[in-house]
Amino acid sequence: MTTLDFSPLFRSMxxxxxxxxxxxxxxxxxxxxYPPYNVELQDENxxxxxxxxxxxxxxxxxxxxxxxxxxxxGQRHATERDGNFLYRGIANRGFERKFQxxxxxxxVEAKLEKxxxxxxxxxxxxxxxxxxxxxxxxxxxSPAIEHGASEQAKVA
Length: 156
Hints:
The protein has 156 residues and is an alpha+beta fold. 16% of the residues lie in helices and 31% in strands. It starts with 6 loop residues before the first helix and ends with a helix. Keywords: Stress response.
């Protein structure tokens, strides 16, 4: 197996520590796993994570967000008796899934229905961070910043 050395990124990317760590984590994580999940882009600023958690009740699932890391875990309570199974294909184990969230992405709702855990997320970019259009004016035109009526009266 080939390993990638991310140390040049750490040396040349000042202030991008989280990005470099996310790349390194993504490279090392194994695909697949339990439980299976989908990540859906619903529109430009809304996302949905759906995990197949059949057999888990709401009180056996835990969601936690800490420092842009969403952790979903489940621990089954021992309700089934250990019987004489000829075949046991239904998983009866706990799990933990972690999702790295981008800046300004918030969890807005989580609901469990028909064995699927739906986690709705929304990206709420502050007004100060949104792009804004700056009008370009030629010479001899009024100033780009217009004053309110009360300030214009003071100037006149």
